[in-house]
């Protein structure tokens, strides 16, 4: 009996959430468990097991088609790591190639929202929707602009895939990472 219940759980766990044959087979197994007469319960489990095997052997229904991905321009990707895996062993460890002439290496934007994290690190929400946070290793104190002033920032690519944020009108730079 434990084996049949385990088989029923297996049918549920391996079937997709919208797979009707698997759900029906599991419902039949559950119905059998409620029968008190032993010979009738065994016959019910035998029949339910055959249905469960058939449901598992049936091909899975086609998944719903994913919506087409929204095409992003190059500025949308600025700040996220470039996904160019090394495919040859002789290329492993080589420095990254120089940026192409049309590659974005710097952006400028107004800050829509400035906040501080629980650990006191600066958080910048830019006009273009990007969200940048001061990295934990940067100890620079960043202050909110005076009342009514807009904060304008420039972010450029640093070394070793890092990014530097400079607040226009202030001295120094802040090491940041892109969150969104």
Outline the structure in words.
A hairpin with a 5-residue loop joins strand 1 and strand 2 (122-126). Helix content is 28%, strand content 21%. It has helices at 2-14, 20-33, 38-57, 74-77, and strands spanning 106-116, 122-126, 131-134, 151-157, 163-167, 174-178. It has 180 residues and is an alpha+beta fold. It has two domains: 2-57, no CATH class; 105-180. The protein has four helices and six strands. The model has no long low-confidence stretch (mean pLDDT 77). It has a six-stranded antiparallel β-barrel. Helix 1 (2-14) runs parallel beside helix 3 (38-57).
Short structural summary:
The protein is of the alpha+beta class and 180 residues long. It is built from four helices and six strands, in the order H-H-H-H-E-E-E-E-E-E. A six-stranded antiparallel beta barrel has the order 1-2-3-6-5-4.
Question: Can you tag this structure with a few keywords?
Answer:
single chain; 6-stranded antiparallel beta barrel; elongated; 180 residues; alpha+beta; 2 domains
Topology:
Elements: H1 2-14, H2 20-33, H3 38-57, H4 74-77, E1 106-116, E2 122-126, E3 131-134, E4 151-157, E5 163-167, E6 174-178
Helix pairs in contact: 1-2, 1-3, 2-3
- CA-based shape: elongated
SS-based structural class? Answer: alpha+beta
**In total, how many domains does the architecture comprise?**
2
Helical amount among residues, as a percent range? 25-40%
Oligomer: single chain
> What's the number of helices?
4
């Amino acid at each position: 009996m434990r084996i049949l219940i385990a088989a029923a759980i297996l049918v549920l766990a391996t079937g997709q959430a919208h797979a009707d044959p698997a759900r029906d087979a599991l419902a039949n197994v559950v119905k059998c468990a409620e029968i008190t007469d032993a010979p009738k319960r065994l016959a019910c489990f035998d029949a339910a097991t055959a249905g469960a095997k058939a449901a598992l052997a049936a091909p899975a229904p086609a998944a719903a088609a994913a919506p087409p991905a929204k095409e992003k321009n190059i500025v949308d990707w600025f700040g996220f790591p470039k996904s160019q895996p090394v495919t040859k062993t002789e290329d492993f460890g080589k420095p990254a190639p120089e940026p192409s002439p049309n590659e974005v290496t710097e952006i400028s934007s107004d800050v829509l929202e400035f906040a501080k994290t629980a650990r006191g690190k600066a958080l910048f929400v830019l006009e273009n929707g990007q969200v940048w946070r001061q990295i934990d290793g940067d100890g620079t104190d960043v202050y909110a602009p005076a009342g009514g002033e807009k904060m304008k920032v420039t972010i450029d690519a640093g070394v070793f895939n890092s990014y530097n944020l400079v607040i226009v009108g202030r001295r120094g730079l802040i090491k940041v990472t892109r969150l969104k």
